[in-house]
Amino acid sequence: MRAHDPSKDTREALFCARRVEWVFAQCFLHSENTLLCGGAEEPLYVPSAAPHEPHRLWFRDNFFASALHETAHWCIAGVERRQQVDFGYWYAPEGRDAGSQAAFEAVEVRPQALEWCFSLACGFPFRVSTDNLAAQAGEPADHSAFEQAVRREALRLAGAPLPRRADIFYHALQAEFGKSAALTPALVRAMSAPADASR
Questions:
Q1: What residues are paired with 55 via a beta bridge?
Q2: Which candidate, 40, 109, 147, 186, has a CA 20 to 30 Å from the CA of 199?
Q3: Of residues 107 and 134, which shows the higher confidence score?
Q4: Which residue intervals of the chain are DSSP H helices?
Q5: For residue 133, what pLDDT band results from cuts at 50, 70 and 90?
Q6: pTM of the model as a whole
Q7: What is the pLDDT of residue 1?
Q8: What is the three-state SS of 50-82?
Q9: Quick check: 176 pLDDT over 90?
Q10: Torsion 56-119-115-13 (CA) sign
Q11: Other Cβ atoms within 10 Å of 191 Cβ, number
């Protein structure tokens, strides 16, 4: 029987997705009428159906990385996109063929790069996600070009001012998680980002 690792409890308490939900609400509930919500089987953005109802940005289960990732999508989406379910994008489930996977990766570069920046803001390990476990059951696919594209975009974002909502969220995460380092390309380079097939 494996011994209990108390450091895992500390890490899970530190990187609790509810903290990200709270930071998001503090930043955007009043200004953007939007809530970040965990517990979903699949991520989904649902615009408000009534003036008094908030827009809801759902992330998977209670996964910390999923909360950061969906917030990155929301921060990138413009006003028109935020009036549409899931920002008007398609989503093909796991088991995508090579063509569908390439299309998925093409639209995921910027959100994953911004998620990397958000991970740095709270000291959470970032992993590039190909989100295609079912198709990788056999021979592992080569996603190195995608991983490099995410890294290049993260370096670009770190070398310029973040978009307004992303900048607000980045600094609020830093305050919540007790981080203060400026977002720079050097900070991105210092944090390795291994690939992960899922969120």
A1: 34
A2: 186
A3: 107
A4: 6-14, 17-32, 64-76, 98-122, 144-158, 164-177, 185-190
A5: very low
A6: 0.86
A7: 47
A8: CCCCCEEEEEECCCHHHHHHHHHHHHHCCCCHH
A9: yes
A10: negative
A11: 14
